[in-house]
Amino acid sequence: MLQTFLRSKQSLTHHLPSRPFGFFVAQDYNPDFKSCLESQHLIKSDKDYRFAVVGCGPAGFYCAKQILKNVANVRVDIFDRNPHPFGLVRTGVAPDHPEMKKIEKDYEEVLKDTERCQFYGNVWIGANGGVSISKLKELYSGVILAYGATSERDLGLPSEKSLLGILSSRQMASWYNGSLDKDVLYDQDLALEQVKNVVIVGNGNVAMDISRVLMKDPEKMAPHDIPTPVLEHLRKTRINSISLVGRRGAVQSAFTIKEIREISRIPDLTMYALKQELLDSFTEASEREQHPDFSVHARGIQRRTEFIKQTSVILENEEQVREVVERKEGRKFILRYLNKPVELLGEQRVKGVKFERMRLEGSAGDQRAVAVEPKQVTTMDCELLIKSIGYKSQPIEGITFNTKTHTVPNLMGCVLNDKDEPQPGLYVAGWLKRGPSGIIDATLRDSVETFRIIKHHLDNEMLPEKHTKPEDVQKAILENAANHQVVDYGDWQKIDAVERQEGSSRGKSREKILHKEEMLSISKKV
Amino acid sequence: MKAIQYLAQPRFTRSVTFTVYRQNRQQEESLQVNAEEGKTLMDVLSECKQIKELDEFGLCGGELSCHTCRVHIRQGYAKIGQKPTVEEEDCFSLLGRVDYIEGVTRMACQIKVSKEMEGAVIEIPDEAFTQL
Predict the structure, then answer these.
(1) What is the ipTM of this complex?
(2) Domains within chain A, CATH numbers bracketed
(3) Contacts of A31 in chain B (CB under 8 A)
(4) Model pTM?
(5) Per-residue pLDDT reduced to its tens digit, A259-290
(6) Across the interface, do A258 and B91 touch by the CB < 8 Å criterion?
(7) How distant, in Å, are the alpha carbons of A19, A455, B46 from that of A66?
(8) Residue A82 backbone dihedrals phi, psi, to 5 degrees
(9) Residue A445 CB coordination number (10 Å)
């Protein structure tokens, strides 16, 4: 026993500097813990491999990181349509949650190793003048599709596309994060100065992010990376109320307790809920969903529901809702349940939404919203309607696509063809693979799963060796109509430095550049 | 003056030792980890070179925005100075019943190493490691 202990003590400490009395402190361990750590699963083979990753958000990045860590003779090229990496970490994560951007340090570690990993920014892959998938398959041993979701689910209601003042949660997040996509016309569409009451359909965490950004004191967000023009708009904004409407009941709320607690702590904001909507939420089946025996998550669900019941000011009926909304003082955050939007009101700009009252049917874990009979219709007035019912991925030519789930059919990350056969060499990761939900920890795990199958194919020599050089890749990119200027990691670092410097002079972590042309011209400078 | 300043520098920072093992690998892979007082348990575990493949751990950097730094304190739970705040309990809500054991599980980012923790036994769940 003692011998084992002494032996293990030796092996643990032989590399550390010797100190008097045998004290060792944590700082004796190499702080550069991430570098030089060879994976214990390292694939050492004489073959040369090349991998292409389409999309430099967390999903694509984590796949690249796994490959670089576990395969000896390899180069990984990561493509992104934007001149910047990071994906939704830059354009999705709310500006008041900077801790979720910690992954940016990870990116630096990996992307700076340009011998083995190249970033190709501002490159379009796919139809409409981009590099084709078949070209990528020629150049690379394996192609990983991780381009996420650039669209959203629709409500499917008349006038949805023609009325002003109707935006998706993705568009809102793009706007307040300064995305280069520019698909929000601020003055006509968003026009927050005109907005007093907001209705958000859908109650997930993105809906909570948007609520916070609209209701929080802008000065609290100023030191982070929220763009200055956005801050200026928010400073002039005076939102009176936000109604967050879920189709199902309180037990099925999609937000997490952390988010609702954060909202409840915003100064000068009161949370409300309707008595009957809460009562009708607690069907026998929904109660069961909160019972610890029902599922592993039941305890957390119950805690969240308790919080809603205890923290909300309970309103008796619609008249009381109107009365509260019309009060001049204070801001109102109203949790609505069991309501489904059926009609959009307004001529040029939205002015309200008609909802049909629902009730819950079905067994525990499968509660569905069904319209009550006779019909009960409620109108909620608003000058801004936000659809927060999910992002949606787009297909890419040459790859099968499930048009119901809007994901690429796959088996643990290996793409399936239209006969459901796995295609070694073609892989998918992230939201494109499993659907648009879940944040960074789920994405990391998911990318590891995809890597597992890549590793399986490598171990069984199912992937072709490739010796593609950077010049070959550059040629393939530039011979396509849509691609004119490639941004590499060094170029991105120039852009990054400008953003940080500009931010620093304004007391912010970064001042994002909002126009692609500006980013491209900075990256061209010597 | 310089000599006095040099001599006044602390030579040793107090170190606390506890046992760490990966879930289900207590027999084969228990480590004695030395940690500096005042550091968070999350930082100590992340920075310990002997703990391999601890990749899905502490993703939000200690802000209670994820749930990935959860550990099970198999011995010495009561000696931890910081009791769970309501925000830490919100993180527990994100863990399923299997991951969260009342009176055992804590978020490592909320625990500051103290001399009272000497001899504690800490289990890191399997899920915190990259599984290949």
Answers:
(1) 0.85
(2) 44-150+393-487 (3.40.50.720), 153-390 (3.50.50.60), 489-526 (no CATH)
(3) 47
(4) 0.90
(5) 999 999 999 999 999 999 999 999 999 999 99
(6) yes
(7) 37, 10, 18
(8) -95, 155
(9) 17
